[in-house]
Amino acid sequence: MPTIYIPTALRPYADHQAQLTVDAATVREAVEKLTEAFPRLKQHLFKEDGQLRSFVNLYLGDEDVRHLQGLDTPLAPDAELTIVPSVAGGVATLADAPARRSIIDDARLQTVSLSQEEVLRYSRHLIMPEVTMEGQRRLKAARVLLIGTGGLGSPLALYLAAAGVGTIGLVDFDVVDYSNLQRQVLHFTSDVGRPKLQSAIEKIQAINPHVHVIPFETRLTSENALEILRDFDVIVDGTDNFPTRYLVNDACVLLGKPNVYGSIFRFEGQASVFWAAQGPCYRCLYPEPPPPGLVPSCAEGGVLGILPGLIGLVQATETIKLILGAGEPLIGRLLLLDALGMRWRELKLRKDPSCPVCGENPTVRELIDYAEFCGMRGEETPQDLQGIPCLTPQELKRRLDAGEPLVLLDVREPYELEISRLPAVKHIPMAQVAERVHELNPADEIVVICRSGGRSGQITRLLLQMGFRRVKNLTGGMNAYAQEVDPSLPVY
Ligand SMILES: [Zn+2]
């Protein structure tokens, strides 16, 4: 029977299964049987009118079914169907790909030479036929921009600097936090509290003083992106949020630059090279972002500390190949890593002629408001929670101390409650609230709690829509409660 692979983000709605077999002769039949067996999956795959959602792609083998017969595509008994929701993201086919050449032109190459110390430093490169003295000089002439110096940015910065990329631009405005150290290997324990940029510059200079670092201590925005990206040859996206991902994609398409993409979630990763001049862009694959809340961020869903190393180094390899003009780039291909099964799979991506940004009649001709476009979730834009009744940690403490009969509804996952919790909470994980709502009494005053106030805000809104009148969101969640009221609780 055909096999369907379920991605991590959707497994909670499918009894946590990674794959299952269905007796089906077509893609449509397979998906119908899947959603019959797991009704909660339906809203994540289909719109209310029954159309497949545009941020969900179905692959038969390595082909997008949109390029086959869509939902009517027949399934052989040994077929493998993969659901690929957007965690990242699409063409010319490989057969049409032009001959590879370096992104660094010969005029630029003539402007750099290597010192004796550099010849020694890069000697293991210089004796490779794919690199040689010429390739190493191209690396030195190259200007690579890293968006973010976090999980993916760490291995990228370390290895690209060591390999001799001459100019590395860094965009980050964040400060090193204890929770970063498990995966962001560019930053050390002694850097906690310091700006990531400062930490990154020191490490890069220590590894290779020949690298010229250009720091941009700012958030990448629609206002500054074109200006920042303009002078670089290759853009590497190391961010983990949708607004920046679409912003980087659109800016790269408008500027004609290659966008080396990677994304990570728990034990899974994706990588590709989006370059509209030679292949698909991210929007060819995912024209629109998923609705807020469907795809959790690393902060909500977690990520294995090693995973950014694996995916970041795929991005670093692709960056070096573009500079050398060597090999076969990941253009038009989406590489998927399942680290639990330790399997790498590869899917074909095609350029979408109707892509809103790189298609034949683009509707996006300048950068837009990406936070609005992505309907940013509460954890990232508190203003989204405006209008939702809320309670500050101090008010909650005061009312609990006064013995007021509040029902505390904690909507986090069970393993989060093991990290920190308030006594006597009613625990219903977010995904189960709708079906277990009968366990709550609308007459009670209910305070909804999560890690930082985003998920609980959504549940507060849901309960209000379901007719509850006395429900409030704990502003800033358990982490704010720990920071502002009870320092004996850990922040995570
Ligand atoms: Zn496109």
Description:
The protein is α/β, with parallel strands linked by helices and 492 residues long. 29% of the residues lie in helices and 17% in strands. The protein contains 18 helices and 18 strands. The protein has helices at residues 27-37, 42-45, 106-109, 116-121, 123-126, 132-141, 153-163, 196-207, 225-229, 242-255, 282-285, 298-301, 307-324, 370-373, 393-401, 414-417, 454-465, 477-484, and strands at residues 3-5, 19-21, 56-60, 63-64, 80-85, 143-147, 167-171, 212-216, 234-237, 259-265, 268-274, 333-338, 343-348, 390-391, 406-410, 425-427, 445-449, 471-474. The strands form 3 sheets. An 8-stranded mixed beta sheet has the order 8-7-6-9-10-11-12-13, with helices on both faces. The chain has a 5-stranded mixed beta sheet with strand order 2-1-5-3-4, with no helix packed on it. Helix 7 (153-163) runs parallel beside helix 8 and helix 7 (153-163) packs parallel to helix 13. The longest helix is centred in the middle third of the chain and has 18 residues, at 307-324. The two termini are 43 Å apart. Zinc ion is lined by residues 276, 280-281, 283-284, 352, 355, 357-358.
